[in-house]
Amino acid sequence: MSEKRIVLIIAGGIAAFKSLLLIRLLSKRGIKTTTILTKAGAEFVTPLSIGALSGERVFTDLFSLSDEAEMGHIELSRSADLVVVVPATADLMAKAANGLANDLASTTLLATDKRVLYAPAMNVRMWEHAATQENIETLRTRGALFVGPVEGDMACGEYGFGRMVEPEQIADAIEKALAGITHIDDLAPKPLKGKHILITAGPTREPIDPVRYLSNHSSGKQGYAIARACAELGANVSLVSGPVSITPPQGVNMVYIETARDMLAACEAALPADVFISVAAVADWRAMNATSQKIKKDGTQIAPLELAENPDILKTLSSHKNRPSLVVGFAAETNDVTSHAQAKLAKKKCDWIIANDVSGDVMGGDHNTMILVTENQIEPWPLMSKQKAAEKLAAIIAKEIGAL
Ligand code: C5P
Q: CATH no. for residue 276?
């Protein structure tokens, strides 16, 4: 195999010291490293220690005559097979997402024609901030790869997502990326491997006649995000979906239905499952006197719409003979969110209710504020993207069913 080389950008975060271990690991694996150290990065590690480990000079300055004479910044950005950012700070990713180029690191990220792999590291609040999440989404859509972060203790004393993965994992990700593998998320731990998770999402549609129906504004975004997050943790996911316009997540078994009764049948057919997550906004009623021909607007009095209550899928599966070990319901409320959720928990006999206030633009939007309500716990979550909330829920489920 021909010799591989990466450009390693070390940005300014406490996790920068781990980049030194990474350089050593890479050198043992026969991968050469050209290093760019940002000004903030130099507060944490020195060019001398990096140079000693990589055996090569370290580039620091966009406007340095000697740096430019040795290798111009455009050439530098293209000199390797892969650009790797360790630690990837919120600031550097924001610059990269927005095309800012005011130092050697950001200029390299803008000028490179190579794939970029980011190993993010930051405080949990910074990680969860919509700005960071949007920047990451932008970079991901442009083909960037990410390894981590993971949940854990942080240098700042807080706990949560934002902790950088260990150098071994970054080195594995680099090797995969160098081999052209873009599913490097496969490196993440798979605590839900071997578990079957059944999820419902989206609205249901209850026909009135062949062209008209009763439904609601559910977009399916939250349910699809949960399906993706569970699949990423290794679960075998069955997603029973009402009509939505979202691309199905990779590796998920899709079952498309229209009505609540079809959704229930599809769920029962998918059992047994270890976990059931009922995210769908199931229509509560259906038209009893639905016609097989289009109702004409011919001036005569139309028959009043007679409604029948739909089966409650969550309640049915909670008391099913094949009941999944963990049953999670959702409760969209506009007022008294927590008390309604507690009442629903008891009425539907599920284990957890995720309550959310839908009085704003949650339905169809990209963010959600949720409260996890269990028999003996009420845990409000901060405002976060539906994707982040999905990842948080998947991680909690993994912990719970690992402990069952
Ligand atoms: O009763 P409500 O619709 O507020 O309850 C919400 C929870 O119940 C959600 O998890 C939803 O998916 C589920 N549900 C259901 N079948 C219904 C109505 C709601 O599974 N017919």
A: 3.40.50.10300
Q: Kindly state if the Cβ of 123 falls inside 6 Å of ligand 1.
A: no
Please write the tens of the pLDDT for every residue from 337-388: 999 999 999 999 999 999 988 876 666 677 888 999 999 999 999 988 888 8
Which three-class secondary structure string do you get for 198-234?
A: EEEECECCEEEECCEEECCCCCCHHHHHHHHHHHHCC
Check whether residue 255 and residue 336 sit in a common domain.
yes
Residue 156 designated active-site: yes
CB of 77 closer than 6 angstroms to any ligand 1 atom: no
Integer Cα distance of 96 and 301 in angstroms = 63
Which atom of ligand 1 is found nearest the CA of 332? 4
Residue 297 in domain: no
SS3 category, 23: helix
Global pTM reads 0.64
Tell me, in angstroms, the distance from the centre of ligand 1 to residue 273's CA: 19
Q: Give residue-wise pLDDT tens across range 294-324.
A: 988 877 777 888 999 999 999 999 999 999 9
The verdict on residue 260 lying in a domain is: yes
* Domain ranges, residue 163: 4-178
**One domain, residues 100 and 15:** yes
Number of structural domains in the chain? 2
